[in-house]
Design brief:
Elements: H1 4-18, E1 34-38, E2 41-44, H2 45-54, H3 64-83, H4 90-104, H5 108-117, H6 122-143, H7 151-160, E3 166-167, E4 170-179, H8 186-204, H9 209-216, E5 227-232, H10 238-245, E6 256-257, E7 261-270, E8 274-275, H11 278-308, E9 312-314
Antiparallel strand pairs: 1-2, 1-9, 3-8, 4-5, 4-7, 6-7
Length: 316
Amino acid sequence: MIDHRERLGRIAASLSMLLLVAVPSAQAVVVNRILATIDGQPLTLFELQRFTQSTPPMARTAEPQAMLDALLTSRLIELEIEKKGIVVSDAEIDNYINQIRQQNQITEEQLSQALAAQGLTREAYRVQIRQELERAQLINREIRGKVNVTPEEVERYYEAHREEYAKDPEVTISHIVLRVTEDAPPDEVERVEQRAQEIHAELDRGKDFAETARQYSEDPAAESGGSLGTFRVGTMLEALDEAARDLDVGEYSEPVRSSVGFHIVRLDARSAESHTPLDEVSDQIREKLYNEALEARYTRWLSEDLRQRHHVEMLE
């Protein structure tokens, strides 16, 4: 089960991929056009171009408006981080990087090589990690506490999706088996089958099944009177499944052949089709509903709440 804080961290990490912010240049630049303002502060065409170039190709789009929206969102998040006084320490960054190394089983040198292959210095990588952790903390504050799943919601989902929790019928069986390999010569197969028919005839004359299994069955289950236990229909050897399907409780089958040999199967019990109880799947359902609510709340926060807290004006 995924920890909620871990999930929020993943959301923040994916957000960072979409909203990588280029480090402002210390040099003066010519601003040729203002595209939007946030709380009176301009966003220029030059900044948009720089932001687009710094965005990984997988998160980049050819639509200028989409990239401008991403840039706006990135700046709004920066403002919220600053407003709430969120600060990530160097120790937190070190711990995060160490976790990444451990998870990927790589050394410091291998990490540096991997970063170099992506055109990143260690310093730039730490800046990126800091941004991810800041955003994760912000999202955790803004979203996690506002998402809740009640027991009533869990029960409603269970009742509406009962077919998802249907359990196959189960059968409890015993057997008597005489072993013969699949590639055995025909005369040996015939001899074993004939012996199985003779044992079946003894059962027809009233001999106790468990006693007969202990006497003749060539299987470890013979010691327990041939009892194999309880199985879901469809999970046993095909020959045993087919044999048990047509039996009433207490009946035994004609000898049937499998890859193991010849079996005489007795049906000891059969359960009706049922459903996994709610208390066994409630945690699973709650996690599913929580994740769905979390995604919806995150999307609303990203597209609506952030914009409502600041004055955003589009100039195109």
